[in-house]
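In response to reviewer comment 3 from the previous cycle, which asked for concrete evidence that the modeling workflow produces usable outputs, we include below a single protein chain processed end to end. The sequence was submitted unchanged, and the resulting structure tokens are shown without manual editing.
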Amino acid sequence: MSDRGMKKWAPYKTLQEQWDTLDNLHSSNEKIEKPKISNEQAEEINDILVNYHGQELEIIYYKSGRLLKEKSTIKKIDAFERKLVLDNNKIIYLKDLVGIR
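The workflow returned the following structure tokens.
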């Protein structure tokens, strides 16, 4: 549905069922495909992780149809399970990484 289509139904969000349905429809329209990273980008991410020494990083990752950013330090790099554990105990899997700055 176009933006006009979503705006058209906004005044009718009076019943909870309508509210939930319209919100789900709107959020599904915003989803994107996971971006593909090049070999150079993968090498850059790998170099940053190999040379990581406790500095704060901006981690860009893909989850549920969205690109998310997280500024944090890394508590643990788990190569066996292929994941990062951030200082707030959030887990980001390496397959979901799009970029690190």
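Residues 1-30 form one domain. We consider this sufficient to address the reviewer's concern, and the full set will be provided in the supplementary archive.
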